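Quick illustration, no need to memorize.
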Amino acid sequence: MRYRELGRTGLTVSEIGYGAWGLGQGAWVGADDDSGVRALHRALDLGVTFIDTARAYDRSESVVGRALKELPGGGDGVHVATKVGPKVPVSLSPSGLDVMEAFPGAHLRESLETSLRELGRDHVDVLQLHTWEDEWTGRGDWLETVAALKQEGRIRAFGISVKDHQPENVLTVLRTGVIDTVQVIYNVFEQAPSDALLPACEEYGVGVIVRVALDEGALTGAIRKGVTFPEGDWRNWYFREDRPAQVEERVDALLTDLRIEAGELPSTALRFALAGQAVSTVIVGMRSLTNVERNAAIADAPPLTTAELSLLTGHRWQKNFYG
């Protein structure tokens, strides 16, 4: 495993991080506590040192907490990030809400305390807002609460998880200098963050946490016409109607241009994300030991060449399957 600095936070994190949404047993069907703990332990054995979870991920925080508790020293040296969900629902489109409705300071503190109990820890390394609207910059009392939580040692760094496919919706607050990290969708298809967000993060020393680097599975080569998922799994909605056929066409074009087999695509996709400007870590959902070992193995793979990156840049695909 290779490691990078998480922006200006002073934290050093593994290039491949553990995205723990799938451990929650809610939206992703097929997990259980025991298998989740085994997968997480294997990831840590292979050098993963960064785990990303959230209050909204059903049982995820408690599974992460159990996995860490079972380790010698309670997982000392493992960096945990979690997220505060808004107090009221916030849509992907502009909500018209005031930030005091979504993220009053008291709500941040209460959510964090619940997360700490679930995780069995006295602090988290990164606390993130689970959504954001840049119109909220300079308003509300959330920033005072963040400063107090840092002073109390309850959090080490503070960040924002950007709305799906809206990387520009954090630029104003980022430039104020109060944000330590940004979490954003960035992958071979979704390259919009490279236009403005990633350069701004590098300029201001903000660590970039990449999510959805495999596009919810689209960039694994496994999504093809006729694909099925367990009943109740949210991917039945994400890959609905003719979307698997769209993905298959795009992926086949990628494989042809790169002259690689489908089994090589996940490694290529993760290395593309890691090549992004200012990227510190790429968090990947890994519920099986096979996927943990496959994704951690990119530490043995060389970075993509300039020619490969240039070719992949041509496969940018403006879409939003969350809509």
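The radius of gyration is 19 Å.
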